[in-house]
Amino acid sequence: MSRSKILTGLSLLAGVAVIASGAAIAQDAIAKRKELMKTVGGATKTGSQMVKGEIPFDAAKAKASMDAIASGWGDFAKQFPKGTETGSETTAAPKIWETFQDFDTQGKKMAGDAAKASVAADQGLEPFKAAFGEVTKSCKSCHDDYRVKKK
Ligand code: HEC
After folding, report:
1. What's the CA-to-centroid distance between 80 and ligand 1, angstroms?
2. pLDDT digits (tens, 9 = 90+) for 16-25
3. Which of 69, 101, 105, 139 to mutate to test the pocket of ligand 1 (most atoms within 8 A of CB)?
C-alpha cells in the first residue's frame, strides 16, 4: 500500500471517529434529558400521592420533591443541542428546535410553580394541593406542545 493510501485510510478512520463521538454526545444528551425528566416524574408522583391521600402528607418530603422539580429545569434546557432531534427513542417534538424560546419559557414557568408549591408545603396540605395543581398543569401544557405521542 502506498504511503498516501495509508494516510487517506487513517484520515477516513479519524473522520469516522469524529462522527461516532458526535453520535455519542447526541445519545448522551437524550439519555440525560430523559433521566432528568424521570426524576421530575418521580418527584411529581410523590406530590400526587400525598394530594390523593395515598401516602401521608409530609411537609419536608413535599418540599424536597418540589425543590427537585424547580432546580432541574436549567440543566434540562441544555440537553437539546442540534443533532438530538431524533434517535434513542426520544419523544421530544421537532417544534422544540423551532420555538425554543417558548419551550424554555414554559419550563421556567414549571420551575416557578414548583418553587411556589415548595413554599406552600410549609403551610400545610390544603395550600400544597392548590399549588401542586398548577405544577401538574405546567407539565401537561408543555407535553401537549412539545412531546410526540408514543405509538
Ligand atoms: C417545558 C417542557 C416540559 C415541561 C414543563 C415538563 N416536561 Fe416532561 N418532558 C418534556 C420533553 C421534551 C420530554 C421528552 C424528552 C425526550 O424523550 O427526549 C419529556 C419527558 C418526560 C417524561 C418521560 C421521561 C422518559 O423516561 O423518557 C416524564 C416522566 C416527564 N416528562 C414528566 C414530567 C412531569 C411530571 C412534569 C411536570 C412536573 C414535566 N414532565 C414537565 C418536556 C417537559
Report:
1. 13
2. 666 667 777 7
3. 139
